[in-house]
Amino acid sequence: MLRILCLALCSLLSGARADPGALLRLGMDVMNQVQSAMDESHILEKMAAEAGKKQPGMKPIKGITNLKVKDVQLPVITLNFVPGVGIFQCVATGMTITGKSFMGGNMEIIVVLNITATNRLLQDEETGLPTFKSEGCEVILVNVKTNLPSNMLPKVVNKFLDSTLHKVLPGLMCPAIDAVLVYVNRKWANLSDPMPVGQMGTVKYVLASTPATTASYIQVDFSPVVQQQKGKAIKLADAGAALQFPGGYAEGSSQLLVSAALLTAELALLRKSFNADIRETMIGELPPQTTVTLAGFIPAVAKAYPKSKPLVTQIRINKPPKLTMNPGKSLLHLHGTLKMSAAQQQGKGLASIFVLEAHFNLKVQYSVRENRLQMATTLDRLLSLARKSSSIGQFNEKELTGFITDYLQEAYIPVVNDALQVGLPLPDFLAMNYNLAQLDIVENALLLDLKLD
Ligand SMILES: *[C@@H]1O[C@H](CO)[C@@H](O)[C@H](O)[C@H]1NC(C)=O
Ligand SMILES: *[C@@H]1O[C@H](CO)[C@@H](O)[C@H](O)[C@H]1NC(C)=O
């Protein structure tokens, strides 16, 4: 019994501790999308238009015929977070209800009202997406004015209005709340779709759990799936410490936190595109890439190649790239082989001079373009250089440190930057535009402070 309890509890606990690869915090600024959803969907006007039509199952209202709703006022929507539940929504609006009254005359009722409901935030069982569901919709009459003759007993009029309006309005207005939520929910629709990372694979922002609501934001935890085009999903490395939002952001603001582990997994997809065969002899500020230049560092090259030959350099990244992030600084570590060969006469291929094993890191700068994370690198440091093979006998590869460092910066970094141009996809939700986001490198993650225009 205890064992079973522990099994259940322990799996729950470890589930709760599962380290998400990205976190999204949505403040009220983003949730005010609901306001624009209501405007964009013209839902109240549509409801008003429907009101006059006979609908199956809808009871006629005693005392009023030819009911119509017109002059619907632009709704003012107020939202409040309800911790643990979702969002409390109040739609304040007004409208004129017309019809033929029981007294035979044309009747006009001008009402000002509030529609309130709680939009519970759930995770859709089928799609796994966040979804709002409205509960407890109520219509509160704020003010009612009529053109009913004033010689009628006020009590009778009031009773009539009260019972009539309370009967007709919820049925008329509450579907509007649901319809707006359908509209808002649709704006999450593509959140967990696979998005391409170049040609090599995809990333999918899958929810790790039901989004959590606090008094000032909604938090969505993602367990992203990085999938190779042909092959298995790439597991995100365990970062050790749990991903956490740093403090100091304004209440109600919105942020996205992308872990270094997620970016590292995505870069693993791009590893092959970091390989390069470089044949140009004149590259930037570098001396001509020939055996003569190389002989200046390693005299044995001159013996093997008395006549100057162009150099061909082949770089193969042979370990998955690794990204590290510390406040203000991000480095991309690359491990690979660097093979220098002399170009032979046409058709004779290449003659390998030596192969070096190299470990170097690049300093990364981040930006956003077209809702993709862009990375631009510069060489930080050549960390190690070891001779793996040589056709010119032994030599001290340390003599090449300066030459290789310059070479990586001038000839190879442009190749890496070119490959990185594919960009890394950011979560697609609520029509978010990331272009105004402010980026900050924090401990083990990149923080995007989301700004709306
Ligand atoms: C109706 O909504 C408005 C705007 O949110 C609010 O100021 C007002 O107090 C509400 N009135 C009632 C009667 O609930
Ligand atoms: C979701 O993707 C489909 C197909 O690419 C697109 O037509 C639709 O506009 C997208 N929806 C949203 C809300 O971005």
UniProtKB/TrEMBL annotation:
* Keywords, alphabetical: Signal
InterPro entries from the UniProt entry:
Bactericidal_perm-incr_a/b_dom, BPI_fold-BPI/LBP, Lipid-bd_serum_glycop_C, Lipid-bd_serum_glycop_N
Identify the Pfam families for this entry: LBP_BPI_CETP, LBP_BPI_CETP_C
Instruction: Provide the leader sequence positions.
Output: 1-18
Does this UniProt record's set of keywords contain Signal? yes
Q: Does the keyword RNA-binding apply?
A: no
All residue ranges annotated as the Lipid-binding serum glycoprotein C-terminal domain in the record: 251-450
Molecular function GO labels: lipid binding
Per its UniProt entry, which superkingdom is the organism in? Answer: Eukaryota
Q: Which family does it belong to?
A: Belongs to the BPI/LBP/Plunc superfamily. BPI/LBP family.
Q: Which PANTHER family match?
A: BPI FOLD-CONTAINING FAMILY B MEMBER 4-RELATED (PTHR46019), BPI FOLD-CONTAINING FAMILY B MEMBER 6 (PTHR46019:SF2)
Q: Return the protein name.
A: BPI fold containing family B member 6
This protein's species is Microcebus murinus (Gray mouse lemur)
- Which classification does the entry list for the species? Eukaryota, Metazoa, Chordata, Craniata, Vertebrata
